[in-house]
Write a structure and sequence with these properties.
Helix content: 25-40%
Shape: globular
Largest sheet: 10 strands, mixed
Number of domains: 4
């Protein structure tokens, strides 16, 4: 019989399978038995009388255990497409998602686990005034907001917004913030690929706590750096203490990072100004670096004489290179012998702007970042909207800098970038800007809670959205910023392409001119109710009531479900990304069959959601070894299911 399609998510399935291979005796009837696991590992545990908390170093706070569990609770909603709200929706790879990011991160797990190259987030700072996500969900079935914990039983919203109080006098001032961040970071880690890096903006209020939970989630060995960003070029008044003119960006990698580099600045390029060697002029100028060092331990193979003009030259401690490497460099004229006043020589190596492989040298990023300020972010918003519709937006140049970093010698110009606290969509702006500059094809996924905009919270944003007749929430600001920034970047790119084509025509080099296709579009999805009915446990003893309850679930779908919504849920359940190609196959005359395919997936989904799958459709259906046909369970007879099963893998709803 065909497999039943269910929107199930087991986030730790891989880890459980690995554990099962190592300690099979810890599993009983397919379930993990913690007592058996403890017995199998008891030789490695301390005495039972010693409390666990006394043995391990770490950060603990009220609610930490529940925060961990939140990351593994299955989602109760799904994402639905919002057609017409985006730009170039048929061709774009960019995604904008409206909804609570905890639920959204769960929904993205099957489709994007291990696929994200960089995550940048600017979470709400714990100042006591900024909104705090409250994830104490009270699940009911009547309203989706209750199911996702956005409202309580009385309809009161549990996700608080600007103006909510998280007072420092509250004993759980830090705990509330940590409980919000922990499960989101846990889920974010699983989305990163092996070379992925996450950058998190934070201020002094929680940087110490954030560092500790990131050490726990990502591992201390994967700490990349704590960057100090001088975010103000002026200073304000402070009643006590120091005037704050900086924030932090914490950087962690998914696995051990071996190298991280950046593009040289124009000023650094100008330092390569020594150009005496005509033989190597195609490699640009060069700088020199000392070849003798006094550090790096004591290595006898690095201590030897170099003979030049009859003079035997010894290092003051040791050379940077071993003897054969030094000899090759001398033969290639890559060593400079500087005669000193005392008749000795100082040896320096030449370092050309262009390396031996024809690539420009790279610089190393430092833990201090300046020359770009919060005021630059404010200016960008004013230029796009002609008014300040969003406060404290991060500058595009800051995020663009992190996007441009090369991790493990990869420039990542076609990677996926995620921001799940996207705010005014600065990250999307930065992705499009960098793609226009270097010809890259990076994609972005923006996630933002639909936080209300009120006249009190931001009058300029409120007036703008009211005038534009748009819903009064932050998502509308973010989407409009992408539209306006994308249009501006596209116009600039078109002008650049025109000028290049004119140059090519003049130089008769038009055959070599390639126009970069810049993606400034985006698709919009919104967190919504699942198309599947939520099971309600029955605890009574009335057999008739139990039978009636089971009868309600003969059809697992909610009433008045929409085909395009269910297609998206199927796509996510089966692990297909949101930018998958969704096309109706015209070869089928009696049924509507939709093919879902993606470069990330070796197989395709063939989905028919008609009330009846006709025999002609079954006869014409051709599946490859890994393709899957999905249809409604009551749309095919048992005989048809057997015939479909012979053609390949079939799943029913």
């Amino acid at each position: 019989m065909p497999e039943k399609l269910r929107p199930t998510y087991k986030f730790n399935e891989t880890q459980l399978e690995q554990l099962k291979q190592i300690i099979p005796e810890a599993f009983k009837d397919g379930m993990l038995d913690f007592n058996s696991l403890y017995d199998a590992l008891k030789d490695y545990n301390e005495e039972d009388s010693i409390e666990m908390d006394d043995n391990f170093y770490g950060l603990y706070w009220p609610g930490k255990r529940q925060a961990k569990r939140k990351a593994f609770e299955p989602p109760v909603g799904t994402l639905v497409p919002v057609k017409g709200d985006g730009i170039d929706e048929e061709n774009t790879k960019n995604i904008y998602i409206e909804g609570d990011n905890l639920e959204v991160l769960k929904l993205l797990q099957k489709s994007y686990a291990g696929k994200i190259k960089m995550i940048y987030i600017d979470p709400p700072y714990n100042t006591g005034n900024d909104f705090i996500y409250n994830d104490d969900q009270k699940e009911t079935t009547e309203v989706f907001e209750k199911a996702t914990g956005q409202t309580d039983e009385d309809g009161t919203r549990l996700i608080a917004y600007s103006g909510s109080i998280n007072s420092r006098n509250d004993g759980r001032f830090h705990s509330k913030w940590l409980n919000m961040m922990y499960p989101r970071l846990k889920l974010a880690k699983s989305l990163l690929n092996e070379e992925g890096v996450i950058f998190i903006s934070i201020d002094d209020n929680e940087v110490a706590q954030l560092r500790k939970i990131c050490d726990e989630i990502f591992g201390e060995e994967n700490f990349v750096g704590q960057i100090v960003w001088k975010n103000k070029f002026g200073s304000g008044a402070m009643p006590t203490g120091f005037i704050g003119v900086h924030e932090y960006i914490l950087a962690y990698s998914k696995s051990l990072l071996t190298n991280i580099t950046r593009t040289l600045t124009n000023e650094e390029r100008e330092n390569y100004n020594k150009t005496k060697d005509e033989k190597f002029k195609e490699r640009g100028g060069y700088v020199t670096q000392p070849l003798a060092v006094t550090t790096f331990g004591d290595r006898p193979n690095l201590r030897y004489p170099v003979t030049y003009n009859g003079v035997e030259i010894w290092p003051n401690k040791q050379w940077v290179w071993e003897k054969n490497r030094m000899q090759r460099a001398i033969e290639n004229n890559d060593v400079v012998f500087n005669l000193q006043k005392d008749g000795s020589y100082n040896l320096r190596s030449k370092k050309y702007l262009i390396d031996e492989d024809g690539n420009e040298r790279k610089g190393k990023p430092t833990t201090f970042f300046t020359d770009v300020y919060t005021q630059n972010g404010t200016q960008s918003i004013r230029e796009l909207f002609e008014k300040l519709v969003f406060d404290y937006s991060k500058p595009v140049e800051l995020i663009r800098y992190f996007l441009s970093l090369e991790v493990n010698d990869r420039n990542g110009d076609n990677d996926i970038i995620l921001d799940f606290f996207s705010g005014s969509s600065t990250t999307a702006h930065a992705v499009m800007q960098l793609n226009s500059e270097d010809g890259g094809s990076r994609q972005y996924i923006m996630v933002q809670l639909d936080e209300p905009v009120t006249e009190k919270s931001n009058k300029e944003a409120y007036d703008f959205l009211t005038k534009e007749k748009k819903p009064l929430n932050i998502c509308e600001i973010g989407k409009e910023r992408i539209r306006r920034a994308g249009k501006k970047i596209q116009e600039s790119a078109n002008d650049t392409n025109k000028k290049q084509m004119q140059k090519d025509l003049i130089s008769d080099n038009s055959s070599n001119s390639l126009t970069h296709i810049l993606d400034t579009g985006f698709k919009v999805f919104r967190l919504s109710q699942s198309n599947y009915k939520k099971w309600q446990n029955y605890t009574g003893t009335d057999i008739k009531a139990a039978e009636d309850l089971f009868a309600q679930y003969e059809n697992p779908l909610i009433d008045n479900w929409k085909e395009e919504y269910l297609l998206t849920e199927i796509m996510l359940t089966e692990g297909f990304p949101l930018d998958s190609t969704v096309a109706v196959i015209k070869d089928f005359k009696k049924n509507k069959v939709t093919q879902i395919s993606s470069d990330f997936c070796e197989h395709s989904l063939f989905v028919c959601l008609d009330k009846k799958v006709h025999t002609d459709t079954i006869n014409a259906l051709t599946l490859s070894q890994h393709d899957i046909f999905i249809c409604l369970d009551n749309a095919v007879t048992d005989q048809d299911k057997a015939r479909l099963d012979d053609k390949g893998l079939i799943k029913t709803i």
